[in-house]
Automatic annotation (TrEMBL):
This is SWIM-type domain-containing protein. Residues 62-111 form the SWIM-type domain. GO terms for molecular function: zinc ion binding. Keywords: Metal-binding, Zinc, Zinc-finger. GO terms for cellular component: Shu complex. InterPro entries: Znf_SWIM.
């Protein structure tokens, strides 16, 4: 894990523990993630993040809207994967970014509690995961 990731993880954990975000934390995350973080904050502010939890297992995945808020919705594991084009192009293939704006939006929403909580059966969650 590189230094940027370690700093980001520390900030995320602090946000999670307090369920609030300070200006200093926003500045640090913006410095680390740049324009992707700016876009992620817009998505969170527009309530564009859903946490879909399977019942009774409690397993979950996030569904994050695209910036255009049209029909684009991406399934996302905040720390590991996003189904968007940018994840594969900028992160996996080119290694230019640490994560995409959808992952950042999901992580920020999860840490601050600013997501829409959707409960589904484990079977419905499995059907969503099959689409990945």
């Amino acid at each position: 894990m590189n230094a940027s990731s370690l700093v980001a993880d520390t900030v995320w954990k602090t946000i999670e523990s307090t369920q609030s975000v300070t200006e200093e934390q926003l500045s640090i995350l913006h410095f680390l993630f740049g324009k992707n973080f700016e876009r992620a904050t817009k998505i969170v502010d527009q309530r564009g993040v859903k946490k879909i939890s399977g019942q009774p297992s409690g397993r979950s995945i996030f569904q994050v809207v695209g910036e255009s808020r049209r029909k684009e919705e991406y399934l996302c594991f905040p720390e590991h994967y996003c189904a968007c084009y940018s994840f594969f192009y900028d992160i996996v293939n080119r290694g230019e970014q640490l994560c995409c704006k959808h992952q950042l939006a999901a992580r920020l929403a999860a840490a601050s509690g600013a997501f829409i909580d959707v409960k589904v059966s484990d079977e419905q969650l499995a059907l969503l995961l099959v689409k990945l």
